[in-house]
Amino acid sequence: MGHVSRTIHVEVAPEQVFELFTNPERFGEWQVPAAEVKDVTGTPGTVGYGWTTASTVVGRKMEGHMSVTAVERPRSFELKGTGTFAATVRGRFEPAAGGTDVTIENEYEMPLGFIGDAANRLFVEESFAESWDKSLAKFKALVEAEAPVHA
């Protein structure tokens, strides 16, 4: 099983961070690689809300379905994904220093057994970590640019 964990601080309240981070219609603005989102079902921000994503990861076109399996608005969420990779993504949004610490935990199962595990150790995990680093940097810039200015 692969695992990537990343934390970033943003100068925005958890409620605003949660809303943007959990809106799949805005993923293309900050996620790397940018994913096409389609087949959205359910009510945003609730258990059962789901969508299909299509993106290119490590040079390979991948499609998968994501579904919200747990929500504690605006503090946390959990997604389960199926497709090329089975994945669980957990997000936590903790108030800190007048803003929010955003922590993402991404656990995933590689296909092909020990061959997939070897590929993960050699380059997939590093590629996912780089993608999360770039995504979170773009997310930070986006959410901070959209935050209301307090006088």
Can you give a write-up of this model?
This protein is of the alpha+beta class and 151 residues long. The protein has one domain (2-146): Alpha-D-Glucose-1,6-Bisphosphate, Chain A, domain 4. Helix content is 28%, strand content 44%. The chain has two helices and seven strands; from the N terminus they run E-H-E-E-E-E-E-E-H. The chain has helices at residues 14-21, 113-146; strands at 2-10, 36-41, 50-57, 60-72, 76-83, 86-96, 99-109. The chain has a seven-stranded antiparallel sheet with strand order 1-7-6-5-4-3-2, with helices on one face. Strand 5 and strand 6 form a beta hairpin. The longest helix has 34 residues, at 113-146. It is globular and about 40 Å long.
In short:
Helix content is 28%, strand content 44%.
Count of folded domains: 1
Radius of gyration: 15 Å
As a percent range, the share of helical residues equals: 25-40%
Assign the structural class, choosing from mainly alpha, mainly beta, alpha/beta, alpha+beta, or little secondary structure.
alpha+beta
Shape: globular
Taking all residues together, what is the mean pLDDT? 83
What descriptors fit this protein?
single chain, 151 residues, 7-stranded antiparallel β-sheet, globular, alpha+beta, 2 helices, Alpha-D-Glucose-1,6-Bisphosphate, Chain A, domain 4
Task: Give the topology.
Layout: E1 2-10, H1 14-21, E2 36-41, E3 50-57, E4 60-72, E5 76-83, E6 86-96, E7 99-109, H2 113-146
Antiparallel strand pairs: 1-7, 2-3, 3-4, 4-5, 5-6, 6-7
